[in-house]
Write a structure and sequence with these properties.
This protein is 37% helix and 21% strand. It has a seven-stranded mixed beta sheet with strand order 8-9-10-7-11-12-13, with helices on both faces. A six-stranded mixed beta sheet has the order 2-3-1-4-5-6, sandwiched between helices. Helix 7 crosses helix 8. Strand 12, helix 10 (323-337) and strand 13 (346-348) form a beta-alpha-beta unit. The protein is an alpha/beta fold and 457 residues long. Bound molecules: guanosine-5'-diphosphate (2 copies). Residues 9, 11-17, 30, 32, 58, 119-120, 122, 145-148 line the site of one guanosine-5'-diphosphate.
């Protein structure tokens, strides 16, 4: 069960607008005219990765003003009995009204955390209303503008200490419920794998080898799109003895089928693009007799930009001259050419002899796990605090850039949101410091990691 957050406030302060803003859809009717009735509505919210259910208590517009407070109170009491937090909305432009004070009095005696939200505070027009709201005695009011979408980061910050833990626990349960993911959030369906590379790198040979006599071929399945081929097969994992399912996106087959006249160079990038779209893990196949070329980096960048887990296999290892020099040279060139994902897994293979192929597939499964990994917000913030302490953000013009919180907003690829202020002044070198730290210290390895900065006051 997700944590439940209730919106409470007198008519016309912007409860509906806030509800819609958080839920992200125009579910509710918003109207200037009093008299627009609504029911109590529920919506699921994902705020910077934190999930909760929001409830809009509404429907007082028709009420006779003399009986309104009593009726509101009765319904509010029912609503907050199962709430984890209350957002008490006031109108920062209008300031406090007697009804606001009355609601504030009830809430002070209620056994639930309350956040005072001073809405309509865009620009400076709400400043005095925000100050006034301190007098409710319910803590520091948050100035927001539901209509303009301002202040949601502050709302996250205020809610996180109250419902963050419950939100994470609920999410872990949901992940268990879905049969497509295991308890670590790793997909349990077939590994969607694409093998891409320049013409003649050995893709067809490799795929034929993989699907050879000792493999059980369960496909070939009809195409994912008009001109692509997915092959379902089962790989006997020599380590665990288990059989694991793989869905292979066959770009080599695609090309041969289409009988093309286009320039091969252009084509292999187009093939790669299509394959990358469907894949979780992309194996870029290099030719040991050719080394790493510009077009390989182009294909690699494509996979990284799409947020896919990328690894490198150097094929034709059986005919490689000076293997160790070649291997190190390619690793070095990859780190130079793809600075955003240093330390990509590199495996030497031979499609001809079969060398390294089981390691390659095992590495691909491992990579998908890393790519799907979720770090708890508490562990994340522990790391974050240490990282900021070890290397505090700069203070351009004598004013320090404040970084407050970090949260993982998603997986596949891992995505993070950092909240703070004066973020436009944050040097990209510092962003890189954070990204590299996440990768190295939180175990994301060479998977593409995304960090978004969000302003909070
Ligand atoms: P509710 O009765 O509390 O649910 O209030 P509504 O969401 O229906 O909003 C009442 C009025 O306030 C509508 O005209 C909204 O457009 C307006 N409103 C809501 N949020 C804001 C805001 O952030 N700034 C301003 N200026 N107006 C807002
Ligand atoms: P594709 O264009 O990437 O599909 O490449 P192919 O699979 O058609 O292979 C191109 C050429 O490389 C063929 O002549 C293959 O026999 C050869 N080849 C593929 N893999 C290996 C390998 O591991 N070792 C050696 N020596 N040759 C290979």
């Amino acid at each position: 069960m997700l944590p439940r957050v209730i919106i409470i406030g007198r008519p016309n302060v912007g409860k509906s607008t806030l509800f819609n803003r958080l839920v992200g859809k125009k579910l509710a009717l918003v109207d200037d005219q009093p008299g627009v009735t609504r029911d109590r509505r529920f919506g699921d919210v994902e705020l910077a990765g934190m999930k909760f259910t929001i409830v809009d208590t509404a429907g007082w517009e028709d009420e006779d003003p003399s009986t309104l407070p009593g009726r509101m109170r009765a319904q509010t009491e029912v609503s907050i009995s199962d709430a984890d937090a209350v957002l008490f909305v006031i109108d920062a432009r209008a300031g406090l009204t007697p009804l606001d004070n009355e609601i504030g009095n009830w809430l002070r005696t209620a056994d639930v955390p309350v956040i005072v939200v001073a809405n309509k505070a865009e620009g400076r027009s709400g400043d005095s209303g925000i100050l006034e709201a301190f007098s409710l005695g319910l803590g520091e009011p948050l100035g927001i503008s539901a209509e303009h979408g301002e202040g949601t980061a502050d709302l996250f910050e205020a809610l996180w200490p109250i419902i963050g833990e419950k939100s994470e626990a609920a999410e872990a349960l949901v992940a268990l419920d879905e049969d497509e993911e295991d308890e670590n959030g790793v997909p349990t369906g077939p590994l969607k794998l694409a093998i891409v590379g320049r013409p003649n790198a050995g893709k067809s040979t490799l795929i034929n080898r993989l699907l050879g006599e000792d493999r059980l071929l369960t496909g070939p399945e009809a195409g994912i799109t008009r001109d692509s081929i997915a092959i379902d097969w089962q790989w006997p994992d020599p380590q665990s003895g288990e059989t694991r399912e793989i869905r292979l996106i066959d770009t080599a087959g695609m090309r041969k089928k289409r009988n093309v006249v286009e320039k091969l160079e252009k084509l292999s990038v187009a093939d790669a693009r299509r394959a990358v779209d469907f894949a979780e893990v992309v194996v870029l196949l290099l030719d040991a007799t050719k080394g790493l070329e510009h077009q390989d980096l182009k294909i690699a960048s494509l996979a990284i930009e799409e947020g896919r887990a990328l690894m490198i296999a150097i094929n034709k290892w059986d005919v490689a001259a000076e293997p160790s020099k070649l291997f190190n040279g390619i690793k070095f060139a990859l780190d130079e050419g793809l600075a955003q994902v240093r330390g990509l897994p590199v495996i030497a293979v031979s499609a001809k002899t079969g060398k390294g192929l089981d390691q390659m597939i095992a590495a691909a499964f491992e990579l998908r796990e890393t790519w799907s990994k979720r770090v708890s917000t508490s562990a994340l913030n522990r790391w974050f605090d240490d990282a900021l302490e070890a290397n505090p953000p700069p203070a351009p013009g004598g004013k320090r850039i404040k970084l407050r919180y970090i949260t993982q907003a998603g997986t596949r690829p891992p995505r993070f949101v950092v909240f703070g202020s004066r973020l436009d002044m944050l040097p990209t070198s510092y962003e890189r410091y954070l990204v590299n730290g996440i990768r190295r210290e939180l175990g994301f390895g060479a998977v593409p990691v995304r960090v978004v900065l969000k302003a909070s006051k």
